[in-house]
From TrEMBL:
This is Protein GrpE. Participates actively in the response to hyperosmotic and heat shock by preventing the aggregation of stress-denatured proteins, in association with DnaK and GrpE. It is the nucleotide exchange factor for DnaK and may function as a thermosensor. Unfolded proteins bind initially to DnaJ; upon interaction with the DnaJ-bound protein, DnaK hydrolyzes its bound ATP, resulting in the formation of a stable complex. GrpE releases ADP from DnaK; ATP binding to DnaK triggers the release of the substrate protein, thus completing the reaction cycle. Belongs to the GrpE family. Homodimer. Residues 1-34 are annotated as: Disordered. It is found in: Cytoplasm.
C-alpha cells in the first residue's frame, strides 16, 4: 500500500511543471493565454481523472484482498477438524467391528460396554465438530456421497439405484465428504 502512495506521489511530481516555463512556451507559440489555460485545465482534469481511477482501483483491490482473506479464514475455521476426523475414522470402524462380536461371559460383556462408551464419546466429539454419518441404506445411490463396490439385481421391492447394504459408513463435514459410504446397490 505504501508503494502505491509512493507511485502516485512520483506521478504527481512528474506531471507538475514550472509555471514560468509554461508561460514562456505560451508566449512563444502564439496561442492566446486563455486558450493555453483552457488546454492546461483540460490536461489537469484528465490527469485528475486518471489518478482518481487509479485510486479507486487500488481501493477496490484492497477491499477484494480483505474479503478474500476473510473468506479463507472462514473456510479454515469451518473445516479445521477435517484432517483429524479422517485419521479417527478407521479407529471408529474398528470399534464398531469390536461391538459386532458376540460375547458369552460377564467379562466380555463388561469389555464390550467399555468399547461402546468409547465409541459413543468419539461420535459425540465428531458431531460437535459438525461431522456426521452419511445416511445410505434404502436411499437412492448418489455418486457424490456413496461408493458402489457391488451390485445386486433389482426387484419389485428393491428398485434400481437403491442402496441395499452399507459395507463401510461414510462421513461428511458440513457439506464436504470426508469419506464416501461403501455400499451395495440394486441395478
Amino acid at each position: 500500500m505504501k508503494e502505491n502512495h509512493e507511485e502516485l506521489d512520483q506521478e504527481l511530481t512528474d506531471t507538475q511543471t514550472d509555471p514560468e516555463a509554461e508561460m514562456e512556451a505560451v508566449e512563444d507559440s502564439g496561442v492566446s493565454e486563455v486558450e493555453a489555460e483552457e488546454f492546461e485545465l483540460a490536461n489537469l482534469r484528465a490527469e485528475l481523472e486518471e489518478i482518481e481511477d487509479k485510486y479507486l482501483r487500488a481501493r477496490a483491490e484492497i477491499a477484494n484482498m480483505a474479503n478474500r482473506g476473510r473468506n479463507e479464514r472462514e473456510q479454515l475455521q469451518k473445516y479445521r477438524s477435517q484432517d483429524l476426523a479422517k485419521k479417527l475414522l478407521p479407529s471408529i470402524d474398528n470399534l464398531e467391528r469390536a461391538l459386532a462380536t458376540e460375547v458369552s461371559d460377564d467379562q466380555g460383556e463388561s469389555l464390550k460396554k467399555g468399547v461402546e462408551m468409547v465409541l459413543e464419546s468419539l461420535r459425540n466429539a465428531l458431531q460437535e465438530e459438525g461431522i456426521e454419518k452419511i445416511i445410505a441404506k434404502g436411499e437412492v445411490f448418489d455418486p457424490t456421497l456413496h461408493q458402489a463396490v457391488q451390485t445386486v439385481p433389482a426387484t419389485e421391492d428393491l428398485p434400481a439405484d437403491t442402496i441395499v447394504e452399507v459395507l463401510q459408513e461414510g462421513y461428511k463435514l458440513h457439506d464436504r465428504v470426508l469419506r464416501p459410504t461403501m455400499v451395495i446397490v440394486a441395478q
